Amino acid sequence: MNVFVLSSRVPYPLEKGDKLRIYHQIRQLSQHFKVTLCCLDADNTSQEAIDHLKTICHRVEVIPLPKWKILFRMAFATVSTRPFQCHYFLQRKARRRVHELINEIKPDHLYCQLIRVTEYVKHIHHIPKTLDYMDAFNKGMERQSKTSKWYLRPIWHLEARKLVKYENLIFDYFEHHTIISEQDQKLIYHPHRKQIKVVPNGVDIEFFTPKKVNKEFDMVFTGNMSYPPNVDTAVELATRILPMVKEEFPQARLLIAGARPNSRVKALQSKDVKVTGWVDDIREAYASGQVFAAPMRIGTGLQNKLLEAMSMGIPCVTSSLANNALHAIDEKQVFVAGNPYDQAAAIVRLLHSAPERSELGQNGRRFVEDNYSWKAATTELIDIIRNY
User: Fold this and answer.
1) Domain span at residue 184?
2) From its phi and psi, is residue 345 left (phi > 0), alpha (psi between -120 and 50) or beta?
3) pLDDT in tens, 190-231
4) What phi and psi values does residue 275 have, to the nearest 5 degrees?
5) What's the number of domains the chain is made of?
């Protein structure tokens, strides 16, 4: 059975959540189907990354998106009803190439990751199609519009309104739909949204295993540090939560690790806060912290960073927003706190008690093993493709 996977990015290296999801999904799909991966590429991805993907898929096609055309499309997006992110990834020449490939390969199923690529194939009706919403982007944009700088808020607010309409409209062009969590499913405003199958993220539990290293930091946070929800969390940790923790532990230090830190994150660097940027092995960052702190205030979906930290046996403190998708048990598998004061108190509690840190970390590891392996997470998607 031939499956054509259309992705808005080349899903390697794994520095972004959408890349991580599609990468592990195609690894699982390739064990059951003949997978052609077609990637749009606005980032001039290295040949080394593309060659790696060729070891996983039957065929890999990369379609470059020139930057000047992206700028032109984004200007046009201001007067269009489609979301900005759809225009960012849509180019006429690229669409022709996608259709040429589909006509050549004659796949049995089309799998599209994210609404960003739906304009490429929405009018193809002779092949079954599955759309992976991944997250409810409309809610993420809405939250971002409330926390971003004042001059950016109208843009995010406009994008949120466009996304509400588009996520609803595009539903009817696809026979099947997936999303990362029940929380996000409820935020797609279509009358038949319950038909959207929940396909959660997983974690590579054989790669992210407990690791004994020197605990140089009291708190650690990881992620793509140009992604607004991660930037917001990093700033919150460094400027509000860490000072409260230091009242009890004056020597407390925070590690912020992850690719592409923007200027706000870089400005957090101090004697108490280390900002690393990209690290070759993110496990070293996780393992170097006593507590993994992810008090997410904005954003949607299931947080990969929490799955990875829990898989490594690191005790985690997070927000109810993040745990709504995770479904871990508060104070048994994770600590959930609703505001900076309670989050700081939870971190202090764990720093005071090595036995409690150990117990929470072990319970978190077992929780991930039981619920979030990539093989288990992708079963629903494989069934959709195989049976329809």
Assistant:
1) 2-202+374-387
2) alpha
3) 999 999 999 999 999 999 999 888 899 999 999 999 988 999
4) -110, 115
5) 2
